[in-house]
């Protein structure tokens, strides 16, 4: 759990069935779990990933996804890429404001 998660008093895990990310694989690795959150989730699930694993870790996983997928628009659209980048920037800004 990151300092941000403690700051916001959030104790949920992305492994919780309510997020629908690992219902069929309880042994999913952190890397794959975060990547699934990035690809299939909206703001809330990405925020939860950042709170649980840290913004730097989530950004690193996003770089892996973006490099791996490349220009294969069937897996991730240009719009999704733009949206995820914007979400991560907004979360970073929010974390900075919360710390001050």
Polypeptide structure, described:
With 100 residues, the chain is an all-alpha fold. It has one domain (3-99). Helix content is 65%, strand content 0%. The chain has five helices and no strands. Helix 2 runs antiparallel to helix 3 (43-53) and helix 3 (43-53) crosses helix 4. The longest helix has 22 residues, at 78-99. The two termini are 20 Å apart. The relative contact order is 0.15.
Helix-strand blueprint:
Layout: H1 3-8, H2 30-40, H3 43-53, H4 55-69, H5 78-99
Query: In percent, how helical is the residue content?
Result: 55-70%
Q: SSE string, helix = H, strand = E?
A: HHHHH
Number of E-state strands = 0
The helix-and-strand class reads mainly alpha
Mean pLDDT rating: 82
- Summed up, the helix count is 5
- What's the number of structural domains? 1
The largest β sheet comes out as: none
Distance between the termini: 20 Å
- How would the global form be characterised? globular
Give the amount of beta strand, in percent. under 5%
Weakly predicted, low-confidence segments = none
Radius of gyration, in Å, reads 13 Å
């Amino acid at each position: 759990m990151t300092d941000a998660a403690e700051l916001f008093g959030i104790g949920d895990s992305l492994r919780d069935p309510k997020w629908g990310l690992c219902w069929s694989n309880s042994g999913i690795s952190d890397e794959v779990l975060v990547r699934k959150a990035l690809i299939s989730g909206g703001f809330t699930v990405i925020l939860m990933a950042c709170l649980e694993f840290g913004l730097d870790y989530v950004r690193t996983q996003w770089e892996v996804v973006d490099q791996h997928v490349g220009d294969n628009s069937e897996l991730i659209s240009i719009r999704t890429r733009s949206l995820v980048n914007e979400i991560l920037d907004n979360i970073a800004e929010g974390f900075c404001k919360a710390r001050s």
